[in-house]
Amino acid sequence: MLAFRHAILALDLFLAPVVAHAQGNGQGSASGPQAAAPIAPAPSVPGIVLPDEAPSSVRIFSPPPIRWDHAMGSGTPALHQGRSDLIALTSGVSFGMQPEDVNALLSTPYQTLYWGSMPQATEFPGDVRYFWVRVDDAGPLRMGSQGCTGAGSYLVFLFTNKGLFRLSYRLVPDKACPSVNETARDIFARCVTIGSRVALSVHYHTGSAEVVDVTDPGASFLIPVRWYQVGR
Q: What is the C-alpha radius of gyration for the chain, rounded to an integer number of angstroms?
């Protein structure tokens, strides 16, 4: 081993003058050796965006944590919220309630309300009736959102003869509130953690409006039906 190290050292000493000569003359030109090219500085770190420079509308929605199975092939939400959580969120409003019972829980109830007095929701097959309140008058059903809604925004309660099966938030921007996205995301974020066996929540756009639907999973063929804004 010692003899091998001596051989390596001797080889290095033998080659050193040759390497030095090549470095000195290999880049030569008619005017003599060229100066070494300057080393380019490393790219500077992007400037930090200060809070007052960041877009105020950019927010991050964190989905609920997932509990995975042992094979890591599928998962379910680790946060389980049930019917009692939905009722607490809606201040007593729950699926299956009759129109008169829902009306009685509102901050500004209708003086008279019954099945025959409600208009028909023609986007649905069969006999589906509804009534509505302005989102600004929805009280706790506004879900605590501090965002603006637009004066034309409203909350629709949809019923079959079996009772309430959907809450539909229809948020429409106007000059005073050019974007209702913050409110829509707040409402959806509060409802989406409710278990799918209790409520199905979706958030979608139609025309200039944003809609958040919270639907009874037992509503069968009525579940995929959506409202579409017309005339805008």
A: 34
